[in-house]
Design goal:
Blueprint lengths: L23 H5 L21 H11 L8 E3 L17 H13 L7 E9 L3 E10 L2 E12 L2 E13 L3 H17 L3 H4 L8 H11 L2 H4 L2 E2 L4 H20 L14 H13 L1 H28 L2 H6 L1 H22 L6 H21 L2 H15 L5 H14 L4
Helix pairs in contact: 4-6, 4-8, 8-10, 10-12, 10-13, 12-13, 12-14, 13-15, 14-15
């Protein structure tokens, strides 16, 4: 029984012009300021947090929204005048200043390359990495009359899981399991009302570092490790008082199974955190895998198949386990509604991500759970979840 279910590129042909930024107001209104009109760019005060970086970039930029239009130099009547390269220091400095205007603290660029380059235009890609995330940028260098200019045309923030943070999660899970070593026998697992235990649960179950932006597909393996750490804590609460030390031994022990049902109610606050953590992290991994499927080459998708399959299985098991808990006696209808609301946020995309067999099994399980729930609005909600995951034919 699963622990979730209790049952430099772009060469130039000549020297580049000197680079000077112009006012944002001219850029925003589509006017063309000359170098003589351009004031120095204001610098924002204070340090900017990484979480703010991710949040703004994820929410405030969409499609090919133009962030800024900046004149880069003094007009020169030179027939062989060329545009700056993508990795030109002044061009990147001005891009950084544009980010600062949007309250994003600039960091060094990496993976700078020319997506395309002609005499009249360069389209450049770059990555800006910082603790807890990265921003992929597209910016265009072209001509405004005789003056080079740069626009940021696209920005996408992706969250990453820092190895140091994952180590903290693992250590917190280890410490929690150590504190709970006697709970399978005595039935008294550590409770979050204890300050030390709350700190450990916060470390493992807090997803703030990856909820502000889409998770980079390269980080999914780390996210699976994070999910497994959470499972270790959930297993403690599942097995408390069962005299069983391994969930795989529950299948042939009806008495222990009954105790696991009671544990969901007895430890409802901790179970709520565990179940919601697993659903939300599963959804974050699913979004990353959907992006991989949309952007990756066929070869890259084949290479990542094992991880993709693991995420599918993890999400399916998580949702099935959550559904099961809704059938247990002793939990309140409000508790059930809160778990169901979290699952419903995942269901529409899960229908596209899970394989057909997994989706059908979830729908069938939902219909079974309905028969154990008495409240009509909850019955309707569970049916709606099943139909959303596997729409009836």
């Amino acid at each position: 029984m699963d622990a979730r279910e209790a049952e430099p590129f772009g060469a130039a042909a000549g020297p580049a012009p000197a680079l000077v930024p112009v006012e944002d107001g001219a850029a925003a209104e589509g006017t063309h300021a000359t170098a003589d009109e351009a004031p120095a760019s204001d610098q924002p005060e204070g340090a900017k947090t990484n979480a703010h970086v991710v949040r703004w970039a994820a929410i405030g930029v969409g499609g090919a929204a133009v962030v800024a239009l900046l004149a880069l130099g003094v007009p020169r009547l030179v027939a062989k005048l060329t545009l700056p390269d993508c990795n030109d220091a002044d061009a990147q400095r001005i891009v950084g200043e544009t980010l600062e205007d949007k309250k994003i603290k600039p960091h060094p660029f990496s993976k700078v390359r020319a997506v395309s380059a002609t005499r009249t235009e360069r389209v450049c890609a770059a990555r800006m990495e910082y603790s807890g995330g990265q921003i992929d940028l597209l910016y265009r260098i072209d001509w405004n009359g005789w003056t080079p200019q740069v626009k940021i045309t696209e920005m996408a923030a992706q969250a990453v899981i820092e190895p140091e943070h994952l180590d903290e999660v693992r250590k917190a899970a280890d410490e929690f399991v150590s504190l709970a070593s006697a709970s399978p026998v005595n039935g008294h697992p550590p409770r979050q009302s204890e300050p030390t235990v709350r700190r450990l649960l916060d470390t493992v179950f807090d997803l703030a570092k990856v909820e502000g932006a889409a998770l980079a597909p390269s980080e999914v393996a780390k996210a699976l490790d994070w999910s497994r750490a959470g499972d270790r804590i959930g297993t403690v609460y599942i097995l408390a008082g069962t005299s069983v030390g391994d969930v795989t031994r529950l299948a042939n022990n009806p008495t222990a199974q009954q105790r696991t049902h009671r544990n969901v109610a007895d430890f409802a606050p901790e179970f709520a955190r565990y179940l919601d953590f697993e659903v939300k992290l599963g959804a974050i991994m699913m979004e990353a895998e959907l992006k991989r499927a949309a952007d990756a080459s066929d070869e890259e998708r084949v290479e990542a198949k094992r991880i993709t399959d693991d995420v599918r299985a993890t999400l399916a098991q998580t949702l099935a386990g959550d559904l099961t808990t809704l059938a247990y006696e002793g939990v309140s209808d409000e508790w059930r509604r809160q778990r169901l609301a979290t699952m419903m946020q995942v269901a529409p995309k899960a229908a596209k991500f899970l394989n057909p067999e997994q989706a059908r099994a979830l729908r069938q399980h939902a219909m079974t759970v309905v028969s154990y729930v008495k409240e009509k609005s909850l019955q309707d909600g569970i049916k709606a979840f099943g139909d959303a995951v596997a729409p009836p034919q």
